[in-house]
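Example 9 (inverse folding). The structure is encoded as follows.
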């Protein structure tokens, strides 16, 4: 039984869902949301307040501007895209505390949260995720 508890506790320390991320940001937690996709995707649409840092550009030199005391949450398109996983791995290897947003921007939008960019979706109320 302890194995199961350890597994699920571990999983929650490496992943977050849109509702939990939104609430943490609303509480003012020290989080940097990282869009790990290419710039053209970021420009079209991204999570409000996110920075664009494509996973392919993450290295010891390019992360010098980042604050290691913060939590970084990486995301990409969602199911079928692993840029967020690659970004989380890269940042972890470089000494950062990282979580991956499950479902990416698609689940962020599905839960009713606002996005920015040329295809932005402004929401006036959160659509409950049901959890």
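The amino acid assigned to each position is listed next.
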């Amino acid at each position: 039984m302890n194995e199961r508890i350890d597994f699920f506790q571990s999983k929650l320390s490496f992943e977050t869902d849109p509702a939990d991320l939104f609430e943490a940001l609303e509480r003012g937690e020290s989080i940097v949301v990282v869009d790990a996709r290419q710039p053209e995707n970021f420009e079209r649409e991204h999570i409000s307040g996110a920075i664009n840092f494509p996973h392919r550009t993450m290295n010891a030199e390019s992360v010098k501007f980042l604050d290691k005391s913060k939590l970084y949450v990486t995301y990409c398109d969602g199911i079928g895209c692993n840029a967020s996983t690659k970004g989380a791995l890269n940042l972890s290897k470089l000494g950062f505390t990282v979580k991956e947003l499950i479902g990416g921007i698609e689940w962020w939008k599905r839960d009713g949260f606002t996005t920015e960019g040329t295809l932005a979706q402004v929401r006036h109320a959160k659509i409950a995720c049901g959890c």
